[in-house]
Amino acid sequence: MSGPAKVAVLISGRGSNMQALAEAAGDAYEIVVVASDKPGAPGLAWAIQHRLPTFALSPKGIGKPVFEAALDGALREAGAEWIALAGYMRLLSDGFVAKWRGRIVNIHPSLLPKYKGLDTHARAIDAGDAAGGCSVHVVTEELDGGEVLGQREVAILPGDTPETLAERVLAAEHQLYPAVLKEFVRR
Ligand code: GAR
């Protein structure tokens, strides 16, 4: 296929990974829409300022099937071929994952398969791990369970709190995600 791969980025919050992906876009991929389940997500304002198309819809009151049908429609209308989850904090249904099988990636703040789910940094510190980190993986029906495409390790330092570790891991995420996405969309 010619031209950059068309990527939709899904966010729920500040969207710093989405910003890193946007800043690294170019020949390999372009962001065709930034979508959110939180109409007030700060990342949407950044996307609008940077002239990226956005789509925002809350599932509250409409139910997951209606929400996901609208999301799916918006992504397809934008021409998306791939989906990058970037701090998207809502589980996608099995049906949605099946429709985009093998074309959704996620960034997770742990060295998978360790610490799937939430509170990853606190769990790594409490376990006495020497390092935490981040992983980019393919999204499947299993939470944080798909093929790992790339990882970055971040040393846990004496006195680290979940917050201080999260900050350094986030910087690693911003390096890792664009690099892995560029490779992934070549598949
Ligand atoms: C990131 O640390 C990301 O890895 C994590 O949320 C943060 C979002 O930050 N994602 C998850 O925990 C997914 N389960 P961002 O909105 O600034 O990109």
TrEMBL record:
N(1)-(5-phospho-beta-D-ribosyl)glycinamide binds at G15, S16, N17. GO terms for molecular function: phosphoribosylglycinamide formyltransferase activity. (6R)-10-formyltetrahydrofolate binds at K64, M89, R90, L91, L92, N106. The active site is at H108. Keywords: Purine biosynthesis, Transferase. Catalyzes the transfer of a formyl group from 10-formyltetrahydrofolate to 5-phospho-ribosyl-glycinamide (GAR), producing 5-phospho-ribosyl-N-formylglycinamide (FGAR) and tetrahydrofolate. It comes from Sphingomonas hominis. The keyword NADP does not apply. It comes from the Bacteria. Belongs to the GART family. PROSITE patterns: GART. This is Phosphoribosylglycinamide formyltransferase. Pathway: Purine metabolism; IMP biosynthesis via de novo pathway; N(2)-formyl-N(1)-(5-phospho-D-ribosyl)glycinamide from N(1)-(5-phospho-D-ribosyl)glycinamide (10-formyl THF route): step 1/1. NCBIfam families: PurN (TIGR00639). InterPro entries: Formyl_transf_N, Formyl_transf_N_sf, GART, GART_AS. The lineage of its organism: Bacteria, Pseudomonadati, Pseudomonadota, Alphaproteobacteria, Sphingomonadales. Its EC number is 2.1.2.2. It catalyses: N(1)-(5-phospho-beta-D-ribosyl)glycinamide + (6R)-10-formyltetrahydrofolate = N(2)-formyl-N(1)-(5-phospho-beta-D-ribosyl)glycinamide + (6S)-5,6,7,8-tetrahydrofolate + H(+). It is an enzyme of class 2 (transferase). The record marks D144 as: Raises pKa of active site His. Residues 6-181 form the Formyl transferase N-terminal domain. The keyword DNA-binding does not apply.
